[in-house]
Amino acid sequence: MSLGLYKDSQFARMFGTSAIKRSIPTASYALFALRDSMTIFASFNLPPVVAPMLSEEVEKVMGRASAAQIMVPAAVQTLSTPLHLWGLDLYNRPTASMAERVKQVGKNWIGSTAARMGRIIPAFGFGGVVNAKVRRRLMERLEEAGKT
To answer: Whole-prediction pTM value?
Structure first.
């Protein structure tokens, strides 16, 4: 996660709106870390909890576990993206009021959430589905090897 936080700080500097390059506020790092923690928690811990709650209709298209693995990391972006935007805004507009920050985050929330979902679904959604299948097959092989 620390490499990701470093990447975020560099992107904030490279693509920020401020002409003055300054240090990233500690609060921005904290918000980025919380955002990443939420995504990781949702990607690895929540799909097994959510899968049994999904409708049986999902089974017509794919397994519930796979559907949950794709949907949950994407869904958490609706909650974590505002933290991301808030962290960027702290760097880009250090003197903005709370009302100005809320307005700015709200203005960028939908587009940024869609972009983050597009980035998260392949990595934690499809990647999680493939990882689970590969892991299950490898564990089955280990069990078979242990029986002989």
So the answer is: 0.78
The DSSP result for 93-131, as a single string, is -TT--HHHHHHHHHHHHHHHHHHHHHHHIIIIIIHHHHH
110's tokens:
């939908």
- 82, two tokens: 């505002």
Which amino acid is present at 47?
A: P
Question: Of 67, 44, 85, 48, whose CA–CA distance to 126 is shortest?
Answer: 67
On whether the CB atoms of residues 5 and 32 are closer than 8 A, the answer is yes
Give the pLDDT confidence of 93-102 residue by residue, as tens digits. Answer: 999 999 999 9
Cα Rg, the chain, nearest whole Å: 19
Residue type, 39: T
Contact 54, 64 (CB under 8 A): yes
